[in-house]
């Protein structure tokens, strides 16, 4: 009888822990990945990817979770079709061989109840490097328009070097690249 009680208590506590983890799917129509670089020391250029998807697991009470983002490298959008094709080529994203750019978290950092950073691994062109996304803004609660739907809204930024990801044949573009992510996600 005691073993059954202990098993029930452990089962309930494990179930309670699992129940506090919430799963969210990134809304591709209100989320975007952008990148910015300096061109010829004259101007900063800002471009985006049009297709992004992913999942967020969050346990707010335990301040743990995970973030997985997948970006379609062929969805790069500069506003100019010829340049889009150039960026999809081997000198840049090599989208034919590496169609997906991904980010997978290794840890979340909180300041009190506020999410402030996400550490993880960014993979571009089959090369994976550690990156910290600094959270610029973060909201978690009922969606402002669709009140009945729990949602997350966040903006995050990071800096990387394009040469770290095998993009070295580009003389007119700065090696320092600023990444920014605008993410809205709905609870599953």
Describe this protein's structure.
About 15% of the residues lie in helices and about 55% in strands. It has about 190 residues and is mainly beta. It has an eight-stranded antiparallel beta barrel with strand order 1-4-5-7-8-9-10-11. It is elongated. The relative contact order is 0.18. The N terminus is likely disordered.
Lay out the secondary structure.
Blueprint: H1 2-19, E1 22-26, E2 32-39, E3 43-49, E4 52-59, E5 64-72, E6 76-77, H2 81-88, E7 100-111, E8 114-124, E9 127-142, E10 150-161, E11 176-187
Antiparallel strand pairs: 1-4, 1-11, 2-3, 2-11, 3-6, 4-5, 5-7, 7-8, 8-9, 9-10, 10-11
**CA(first)-CA(last) distance:** 38 Å
SS-based class: mainly beta
Shape, principal axes of CA atoms:
elongated
Q: What strand line-up does the widest sheet have?
A: 1-4-5-7-8-9-10-11
pLDDT average, as an integer?
A: 89
Number of DSSP helical runs = 2
Main sheet overview: 8 strands, antiparallel, barrel
State the helical fraction.
10-25%
Number-wise, the strands total 11
**Percent in strands:** over 45%
Compute the CA-based radius of gyration.
20 Å
Element order, helices and strands?
Answer: HEEEEEEHEEEEE
Low-confidence stretches: 1-17
Oligomerization category of the chains in this entry: single chain
């Amino acid at each position: 009888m005691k073993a059954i009680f202990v098993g029930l208590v452990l089962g309930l506590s494990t179930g309670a822990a699992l129940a506090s983890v919430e799963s969210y799917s990134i809304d591709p129509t209100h989320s975007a990945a952008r990148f910015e670089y300096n061109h010829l020391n004259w101007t900063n250029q800002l471009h985006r990817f049009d297709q992004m998807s992913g999942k967020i697991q969050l346990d707010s009470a335990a301040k743990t979770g995970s973030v997985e983002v997948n970006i379609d490298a062929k969805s790069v959008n500069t506003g100019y079709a010829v340049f889009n094709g150039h960026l999809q080529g081997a000198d840049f994203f090599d989208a034919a061989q590496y169609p997906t750019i991904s980010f997978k978290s290794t840890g979340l950092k909180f300041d009190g109840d506020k999410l402030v950073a996400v550490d993880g691994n960014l993979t571009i062109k089959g090369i994976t490097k550690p990156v910290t996304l600094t959270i610029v803004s973060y909201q978690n609660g009922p969606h402002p328009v669709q009140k009945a739907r729990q949602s997350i809204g966040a903006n995050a930024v990071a800096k990387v070097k394009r040469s770290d990801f095998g993009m070295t044949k580009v003389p007119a573009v700065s090696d320092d690249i600023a990444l920014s992510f605008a993410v809205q996600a709905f609870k599953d």
